[in-house]
Fold this protein.
Amino acid sequence: MTTAPRLTALDALHRSLGATMTDFAGWDMPLRYGSERDEHNAVRTRAGLFDLSHMGEITVTGPQAVELLDFALVGNISTVGTGRARYTMICREDGGILDDLIVYRLGETEAGSPHYMVVANASNAQIVLDALTERAAGFDAEVRDDRDAYALIAIQGPESPGILKSVTDADLDGLKYYAGLPGTVAGVPALIARTGYTGEDGFELFLRPEHAEGVWKALTGAGEGVGLIPCGLSCRDTLRLEAGMPLYGHELTTSLTPFDAGLGRVVKFEKTTNEGRFVGREALEKAAERAETAPPRRLVGLVAEGRRVPRAGFSVVKDGEVVGEVTSGAPSPTLGKPIAMAYVDAAHAEPGTPGVGVDIRGTHEPYEVVALPFYKRQK
């Protein structure tokens, strides 16, 4: 059995651009091409181009596709209109989060049944595929692994609409946030979605792997005059951290429910399909009650007063006591200071709580508790 990482359709192109590559969730992915800070700032002020072909696309079709997804996921998928997308989660029976997902309703199949695409995180794609397949028992629906059918390119940043407009026939002005429509990009068919993981306006383009290099080059050419640059996973992480977006394995795990993560809004108890039944419902109702009455910890932002960077797993402290744990931390290019997300005891989670610090190798460094996100784009 080979353990060599999988390569995306853009692998040769990344190497030709001098990318530093890294193994991520079993894929060889670009970490950075040059300076992480420059790539981060390009997305905040101009535009950046990302290869996200490691994400896991799963197609769900059939007469009971809606019922299956409403049963398998915590969201109300029956209310997602054609051409729209929904952020949701798949949980275990005990309410623990298996993954966070985006579900796109693509329209109808040739047979006239609903056609959905579920996009899972690369590290959880097989877990989500297995769970959906298992949960499909008893439903007239098909779950198909389409990870090899797509390459995924993201263009993010304030200049991205103008760049994409110059190489597509699609009506981008009419495309809302969390919506997707079929169109052509650089002459090839693509699903164009106004989604992203950076806190900026931008698009994710799902296309056939053999078309990926041509589309990447066309976008690069179209963005030359406005400062578009290729971007790696490293700046994607600092961008999502500034935007307060959770990362599976850090802010989201099987030991947490969506309510523990401050994302209880994605759980919909008022579903009309399956008599309201869905996997994890009973556990999540209890978690919702706990979150209302006595939440053990809350997800907060921390901004450093000094220069030392907190990392995942570091203890949050107050008056010598451990009151929480850092889940993600990094220097913030936008704020010019180290920042972190952390789960902190509810009693110390209010913005401005005095005396909170992070234990960085034995020294209690002072941090300010702030509300998330750290950064919000001006619309």
Observations:
- The first helix runs from residue 11 to 16.
- The first strand starts at residue 6 and ends at 7.
- Residues 20 and 32 are 5 Å apart (CA to CA).
- The mean pLDDT is 97.
